[in-house]
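Render this sequence as a predicted structure.
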Amino acid sequence: MSTGKIIGIVVFVGIVLFALFLFQTIKTKSTSLNNFVPYKELIGKTVVLNNDVILYKYKNSAEVFNSNYPYFLIDSKDPDWISIPNFVEINEIETIFEIPKGASLKIEKAIQYTNGVSGTSSPFVFGTITSDDIDYKVSYQWGEQNMSKNFDNIPESWYFYQAPWQNELDTSFYYLPKAKIW
């Protein structure tokens, strides 16, 4: 084998390894939150909604974190509530219907997604809500990280706004893991 071929193979393998490393670095990572408070008390349970919620669906499937759960819930206590009309107006999401207070949501799992580019994390609960004998697989983004606690390296930096199934706001801070490459 000539020196040129060996150099070519080494360069090719190096480019492939670099591309794989780059892909692993910038892709969105995920990790289970099923064993972390406050999620572990909810997994496998059916909760009753104390508020009306609206069921939405992204029009672009690339926006959905988990394709098995194409719908998402939101209510007026959610911090993102104010931006929902804008997403409807620019045709990114469609309103499916309003689900009244008293409906049941079976919570199946919780996952933390970490963006490979920005490094921000978003925790979600996933479950099934039934309306008119139709099951809807839904996600609900629940949890925010307090940036000052995070920058001060305080592990318990996650707080939770009042979810539609909660009777009152939980003011505690919790530790959640960051999804990593491996």
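Summary. The longest helix spans residues 3-26. The CA atoms of residues 109 and 117 lie 25 Å apart.
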